[in-house]
Amino acid sequence: MTKSDHARATLVLGLPMIGSHLAQMALHVTDTVMLGWYGVTELAAVVLGSSAFFIVFILGSGFAQAVMPMVAQAIGRGDEVQVRRDTRMGLWLSIGFGVISYPLFWQSGTILLALGQKPEVAALAQDFLRIAGLGMIPALLVMVFKSYLGALERTQVVLWTTIAAVVVNAGMNWMLIFGNGGAPELGVRGAAISSVTAQVLTVGGLAGYAAALPALRRFALFQRFWRPDWHAMGQVFRLGWPIGLTSLAEGGLFQATALMMGWIGTVELAAHGIAMEAAALAFMVHLGLANATTVRTGWAQGGGDAQGLRDGAKVALGLSLGFGALIVAVFLSWPAPIIALFTDASKPESAAIIAFGSTLLALAALFQIADAMQVMALGLLRGVQDTRVPMLMAVLSYWVIGIPCSYVLAFPLGFGGVGLWLGLVIGLSLAASLLMARFWIRAPR
């Protein structure tokens, strides 16, 4: 394949994945925007609650993410039975994780108070999480189906199902947060109910598609679903837990930053949440490209195509770098208008949120390229089922280096919220360097 062939193949597979990630992110952005209109304390609470939900979710999603390279390699080998076995046990492990994680959401108020959050914010965050936590199982199952369908090049349905969920979430938010259309005014609890409903509808749609589409029936995904397959479960678990911990290490860096920003002030935490939403939207593009790269690398690995693996990797990295450069220019050129989209100008705190959020968004431009390269490197490494050493590299970069740097810069050195985000830049840059070196050292072999 030529470079243009690789680029075309990556985009054909990756663009629907990017769209589905952006749509999934839009669920959270919708909550942030609408609660920003509702009240600053409510916005801060949901920023904190959503971050807590996400940190648990990404730990459990390791099993779902393991399904993608395993199914891709099985397809590359022509082993259709293994496709069913791996996917089904990914579903089993995701359900089990969702069950055991719910007590954390029920006791979240106590946990957040112990972590130094303000009582009124912690109480509202607990109200949100006790309902939103019920969506952990459907959210994880959605991830498994995304991995399964992505590895089989069935990404369009994921995109359209997720877009439909965004529409449902926005409509229910309008009713349940504000009490419109005769519905009760539930504030943060209304946002949680809307999110859970959207997740349930999404998993139902994807499961129905996977079961009913004639082209996929040969995999018999739900055939004797209740029967355990211990060998396949062990394989998914062994590949998935390092992925989950790697994601936890990275997510923990951002969650720790949110917690420390809460120590500084409510306005700062709200601005942090908005700037992080904007940065995360851009990150979804790189994540979609990384997912496509994982699938294509898995196909090449399963089929023994070493040259195709390396050439595809170079092209995918070029695409990600090009988009990253564009986002840097946007964040540096229009930070205030971007932040203003998430706030109600009539609120007295809006001016302070926009001012501080604009500074943070300019700092977000500093880590765009590093963030893109670390997630692309992870996608490549997962495609060849290399997950344990990358996990250690992530822990070193984010927890041993990144979080301590954020704390020292913010508090002992007095840079405040700006210092917290400079720590993000340091941790992500180190991770990108280590992970990219890991892949290219191993790629020729």
Automatic annotation (TrEMBL):
Example of a GO biological process term: monoatomic ion transport
Membrane-spanning parts: 35-68, 89-108, 128-145, 157-176, 196-216, 236-264, 270-294, 315-339, 351-370, 391-413, 419-441
Keyword Lipid biosynthesis: no
Database matches in Pfam families: MatE
Source organism, top-level taxon: Bacteria
Keywords, in A-Z order: Antiport, Cell membrane, Ion transport, Membrane, Transmembrane, Transmembrane helix, Transport
Chief place of localization: membrane
Any one cellular-component term (Gene Ontology): plasma membrane
Protein name as it appears in the record: Multidrug-efflux transporter
Organism classification: Bacteria, Pseudomonadati, Pseudomonadota, Alphaproteobacteria, Rhodobacterales
